[in-house]
Task: inverse folding
């Protein structure tokens, strides 16, 4: 089994979805944009209730991910899976169509995003000192 890479990504996508050719060519060869276009295509199929096309997209994504080199695997995670949504009335049905390998990767991404969102959103170490200094000067000026 040969590893999929950026070089053969467009070939694989266009072979399954010829209607994506123009959109992929407009991406100027940028891997993350190409996978973003594929994610948008996938989400559009779900949005219009075309679950057979949605499922075909997911099966191809699963094949690409399973046989991807490191660069492509990272891009699939960040520019494809991360953009799949399972909200709304079709969300549960759409989730059931996601192959187990992609469900696992999507769950890892979602968990990491939740962890990052729960971190304190404090200021950098340098900024508080500058802000504190400005506040002290303002207070001192008022007292005089």
Result:
């Amino acid at each position: 089994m040969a590893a999929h890479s950026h070089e053969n990504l467009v070939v694989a996508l266009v072979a399954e979805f010829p209607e994506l050719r123009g959109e992929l060519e407009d991406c100027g060869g940028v891997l993350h944009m190409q996978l973003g276009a594929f994610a948008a295509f996938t989400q559009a199929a779900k949005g219009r209730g075309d679950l057979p096309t949605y499922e075909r997209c997911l099966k191809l994504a699963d094949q690409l991910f399973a046989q991807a080199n490191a660069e492509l695997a990272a891009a699939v995670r960040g520019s494809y899976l991360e953009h799949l949504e399972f909200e709304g009335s079709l969300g549960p049905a759409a989730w059931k169509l996601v192959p187990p390998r992609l469900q696992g990767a999507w769950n890892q991404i979602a968990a990491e995003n939740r962890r990052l969102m729960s971190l304190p959103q404090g200021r950098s170490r340098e900024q508080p000192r500058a802000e504190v200094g400005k506040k002290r000067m303002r207070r001192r000026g008022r007292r005089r």
